[in-house]
Amino acid sequence: MNILAEELNSVLSDSVAYGFLSSIGRRMYFPKGIVAQSDEAKEKAKRYNATVGLATKHGEPFYLEDIYSSFREGLFKPSQIFSYAPGGGDKTLRSLWKEAMLRKNPALSGKKFSLPLVTGGLTHAISMVAQLFVSEGDAVVCPDLFWDNYDLIFRDLIGAEPVLFPFYGKEGGFNIDGMKEALLSVPGDHVRIILNFPNNPTGYTPSQEEAKRLVDAVVSVADTGKKVLVISDDAYFGLFFEEDTEKQSLFSYFADAHENIFAVKGDAATKEEMVWGFRVGFITYASKGFSDAHLDALTKKTLGMIRCTVSNCDRPGQSLIVEAMRNGSRYEADKAEIFSEMKKRYEIVHKAVRKHDGDNLLTPYDFNSGYFMAFDTHGRSAEELRLYLLDKYQIGVINIMGGTLRLAYCSVEPEGLEELVDTVYKAAGEIWS
Ligand SMILES: Cc1ncc(COP(=O)(O)O)c(C=O)c1O
Fold first, then answer.
1. From the CA of 79, how far away is ligand 1's center (Å)?
2. Which atom of ligand 1 is nearest the CA belonging to 126?
């Protein structure tokens, strides 16, 4: 094993993170190779800096005028568009994201957590967390309605064993007892869970009271001596449409909840800043018992993962986000406007499904947030309904695991939403009654 990896492992050995490291995680380190040496040269090589494979003239990268001229004149230096970004991301962006995280999650204030590392989108963040902290055969607890890419990442890439529990409890709401039972059912002293709110595909986020009970339930598992890795997938963070919904990331509560809880937050500019194609996400770490040295070692291991997967992330995207967050004259106003538009669509869809209360073919799952709502098809084939809607009505929806039909109301204009919902019910009636 590389000596640098051994050093990081030794730093982490007295932390809750250590026991979660996969064999990849143990081997991972940030090499003192080209990137580290060129960072050093940036400081000291004032005469000639011949370290990086990036063609420059007078200290700025070469570029094609056709590309550079597409950006507003004078806004960015060529290096802010064409250069490599630092491995962990643009420093300013990382600080701005941390400040924004604190603003949006007041419960994080005063708590120790790492400076977010930039990833190539949230998928990349989750995939790296999986590779670092989950090994083949490890159980990963997850509610049974989840983003389908978890299967590909945890089960198919890593070879982990999904341990699913019903998303909703018998009385409605998030199934906290089922979650606790699933966590306790995993043998051994380490257990991993991934939670995604607002949820894809259901569009559900726990209420404030539920969120508190959820955190308490995980703490009670940690109290038994089990170490718990909690990954919060905050892809749709901020899209909360009801008064009593929990508006802070669960990461804010897990960050200092218990010495046995290792909290990881995956989030992204993708949906929060509406830049789907930019591929800019973030990973942040916290635990009650973490020292600065622990956070630094975890950061270095993650930098190693970034280096060996994408090397570094999208530069123009990061510069554009920094510019908007720091100087954008319409930044807050535009975000507020788009939020209102999403809330409006949410309300229309809510009203439209309520008209069909009591329908015995399709039952909407409780939803209060995010981009989606979904129907339980009660064992009938969601794929059959999907194909029928597509062929007969030219309506595209998603079949989730055969028994759930997902509507992305975020991508349909308000005027069409009622008709969309009515047609889904009508189509179900046509094929199943
Ligand atoms: C629940 C969930 N997590 C993560 C992601 C990935 O986001 P990104 O596009 O930033 O990779 C998505 C995107 O659809 C998602 O729905």
1. 29
2. 4
**pLDDT, tens digit, for every residue of 337-394?**
999 999 999 999 999 999 999 999 999 999 999 999 999 999 999 999 999 999 999 9
**266 CA to centre of ligand 1 in angstroms:** 10
CATH class of 3-30+85-327: alpha beta
Token code pair at residue 98: 């941390």
Report the separation in Å between the CA atom of 357 and the middle of ligand 1, taken as the mean of its atom positions: 31
Tens of pLDDT, residue by residue over 86-145, are 989 999 999 999 999 999 999 999 999 999 999 999 999 999 999 999 999 999 999 999
Cβ neighbours of residue 63 closer than 8 Å, sequence gap 6 or more: 78, 81, 82
At 231, which helix (H) or strand (E)?
strand 227-233
Architecture of the domain whose range is 332-432: Alpha-Beta Complex (3.90)
* Amino acid letter, residue 29: Y
Separation CA 118–CA 267 (nearest Å): 10
Nearest CA to ligand 1 atom 7: 122
**pLDDT tens-place string over residues 404-419:** 999 999 999 999 999 9
If you measure from the C-alpha of residue 119 to the centroid of ligand 1, how many angstroms do you get, rounded to a whole number?
12
Question: Domains of the chain: which residue ranges?
Answer: 3-30+85-327, 332-432
**Nearest alpha carbon, ligand 1 atom 13:** 235
**Model pTM score:** 0.95
